Amino acid sequence: MSFKSSLLMFLIVCFASSVGSAQNPPAMGATAGLGPGDTFTLFVTFKDPMPEIGSINCVFRLTTDRKPGQETFGGEVDCIGAGLKKDDDTHYRVQVGIPKVGIADGDYRLTHIGIGIGDASRQYEGNNIPNPPTVSITNHEHLKFSDLKSVEVKK
Q1: pTM metric for this prediction
Q2: 31-137 domain in CATH 1.20.120?
């Protein structure tokens, strides 16, 4: 095979692989670059079609130890109720918000999903959540609460 033929073959393979990856982009994980004040999307897929869902709530809990200087920080991240979207009868998505201040640095795992339809609701926890996702939050903030000097009650 000549140099020109080899080069042409190489370019065709490169082009074909770039077109293939453009049609099927790699799944982007929510774990990249998350910090205080950010949001990400939780995608929920049901086995069977669901009627119109009124609400989805969720809780991601810290799975790692709190770092020094963050012992008093929160260790939960929740869904934002207003961010519910229906893609079709089995696919929904909801926005998850990370608090702007006081959230502990570390890995958070989905531990709870609640689905509401009118006054009815169902809670999914433990083994009822297939492959619970984990997100990593980076927070370089450290706070030190001052001791109280005095507390008084006066009439």
Answers
A1: 0.74
A2: no
